[in-house]
């Protein structure tokens, strides 16, 4: 096998083994060039930690062009929970250049009768708006921050081996890579997680809960139109993104959603709740990723009404090779780390998140945000590794899980509640939706929004973003390494007098 990494981390069988304890930072191998993997790479670049990214796809998506991978063409939004880190990285202004604020959203029945409006969050209080954009543009922004020599394409991981001195990846092209830490950021069907679980299962160390199949409660069709004529679609010119949710009647297990994004485009999304009608379940059983199957589904729902006309008009403005079908899966794995391997969440390739470590329903927009928050927390713990040793690495990865697991677990009730509120079609879910939009005081809804945005971890090895808004957020944990180095500097200064 060829080794594609350099001599910083030789194989354990050689005579030039690295020392068990070294002052050099750990060498990090990142599997997956989705949002989480790229965000982690950018943070490690800032932290001075060596890394390489390995992506199984053949070529990176050309910058400034639409993705050749249909499942990446979708709309997404991110919340104030991660925007301070974009500000730390100097990327917030460019992010805002292709985004629209998503301040309001209106829910309709299938006959376009207003159900209610979502409570708008105040940027004066929260500090930032929630923003909407086309996902490939965020991917482009992150991708161009990664030096080309640190990005490796067509690298499909088939296995890896870890020992006291390092970890070795084996790829499908018979090459290998050697490093100190492996980060699996390669999606819901992660090759890293699969191999790790197989190894742990053979050793009797894999919890039974991690062997269950991820349940699929919804399927969705997503796409983004070409530029539309503002004379026909005047809403595309508004500063704020028009966001409409149309919920089918009791015999129609569909919710269809539209968002306006810059470039006079509309992102659309059709969600089917499984288990309500035989038609929906048959869609799931016969569904495939090929455009022909997507078109068949689109033809069956062309006449659904939207505030712009029928869905078919938006379908006609969307090239078929830029439409994708995705599943909503819901899973929280117990096993996130073992030895030198760690899994992070990653909203990879789709509007609806597909992280390896945790899998949330898409309704709260938590997938991509969680992937990037995972990257921030992990980067903080990797920065604190000094000196580099196997014990310190295991401690750092364990601390990462300890920091993140409860935060992710706490979001599950919110995710399920949001899914029921927007996509639910059972009688109880319809009653729940009616109560929320007609009886719940707006002040309580606003309080929930504020509570969901107080958690905003930042990179603790970079200058903190300025405080925005009046909301008091959760205090940032300081870097243990910086604290230790500061104390040592003070002692040296005192000893010099």
TrEMBL record:
Molecular function as annotated in GO: FAD binding; monooxygenase activity
Keyword Oxidoreductase set for record: yes
Composition skew (Basic and acidic residues), residue ranges: 482-491
Residue ranges of domain FAD-binding in the record: 28-197
Biased composition (Polar residues): 1-15
Record keywords: FAD, Flavoprotein, Oxidoreductase
A Pfam family per the record: FAD_binding_3
Record region (Disordered): 1-20, 466-497
The family this protein is said to belong to: Belongs to the paxM FAD-dependent monooxygenase family.
Record-linked PANTHER family: FAD-BINDING DOMAIN-CONTAINING PROTEIN-RELATED, FAD-DEPENDENT MONOOXYGENASE ASQG-RELATED
Protein name per Swiss-Prot or TrEMBL: FAD-binding domain-containing protein
Native source organism of the sequence: Linnemannia gamsii
């Amino acid at each position: 096998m060829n080794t594609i990494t350099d001599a910083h981390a030789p194989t354990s069988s050689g005579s030039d083994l690295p020392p068990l304890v070294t002052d050099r930072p750990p060498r990090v191998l990142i599997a997956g060039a989705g949002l989480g993997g790229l965000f982690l790479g950018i943070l490690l670049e800032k932290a001075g930690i060596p890394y390489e990214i390995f992506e199984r796809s053949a070529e990176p998506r050309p910058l400034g062009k639409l993705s050749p991978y249909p499942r990446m063409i979708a709309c997404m939004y991110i919340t104030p929970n991660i925007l301070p880190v974009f500000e730390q990285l100097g990327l917030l202004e460019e992010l805002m250049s292709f985004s629209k604020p998503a301040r309001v959203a209106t829910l309709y029945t299938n006959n376009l009768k207003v159900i209610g409006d979502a409570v708008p969050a105040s940027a004066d209080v929260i500090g930032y708006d929630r923003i909407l954009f086309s996902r490939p543009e965020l991917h482009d922004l992150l991708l161009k921050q990664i030096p080309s020599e640190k990005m490796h394409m067509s690298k499909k991981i088939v296995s890896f081996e870890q020992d006291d001195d390092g970890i070795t990846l084996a790829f499908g092209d018979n090459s290998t890579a050697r490093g100190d830490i492996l980060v699996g950021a390669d999606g819901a069907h992660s090759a890293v997680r699969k191999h790790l679980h197989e190894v742990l299962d053979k050793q009797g160390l894999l919890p039974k809960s991690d062997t269950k199949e991820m349940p699929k409660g919804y399927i969705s069709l997503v796409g983004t139109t070409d530029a539309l004529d503002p004379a026909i679609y005047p809403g595309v010119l508004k500063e704020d993104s028009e966001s409409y949710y149309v919920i089918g009647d009791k015999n129609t297990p569909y919710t269809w959603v539209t968002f306006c994004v810059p470039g006079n485009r509309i992102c659309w999304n059709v969600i089917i709740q499984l288990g309500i009608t035989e038609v929906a379940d048959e869609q799931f059983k016969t569904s495939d990723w090929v455009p022909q199957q997507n078109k068949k589904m689109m033809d069956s729902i062309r006449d659904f009404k939207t505030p712009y006309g029928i869905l078919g008009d938006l379908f006609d403005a969307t090239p078929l090779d830029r439409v994708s079908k995705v599943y909503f899966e819901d899973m929280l794995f117990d096993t996130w780390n073992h030895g030198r391997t760690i899994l992070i969440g990653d909203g990879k390739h789709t509007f609806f998140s597909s992280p390896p470590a945790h899998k949330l329903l898409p309704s709260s927009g938590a997938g991509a945000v969680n992937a990037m928050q995972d990257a921030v927390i992990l980067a903080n713990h990797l920065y604190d590794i000094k000196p580099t040793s196997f014990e310190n690495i295991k401690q750092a990865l364990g601390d990462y899980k300890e920091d993140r697991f409860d935060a992710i677990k706490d979001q599950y009730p919110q995710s399920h509640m949001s899914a029921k509120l927007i996509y639910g079609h059972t009688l109880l879910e319809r009653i729940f939706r009616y109560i929320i939009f007609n009886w719940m005081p707006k002040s309580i809804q606003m309080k929930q929004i504020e509570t969901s945005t107080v958690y905003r971890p930042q990179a603790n090895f970079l200058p903190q973003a300025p405080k925005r808004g009046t909301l008091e957020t959760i205090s940032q944990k300081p870097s243990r390494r910086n604290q230790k180095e500061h104390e040592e500097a003070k002692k040296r200064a005192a000893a010099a007098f």
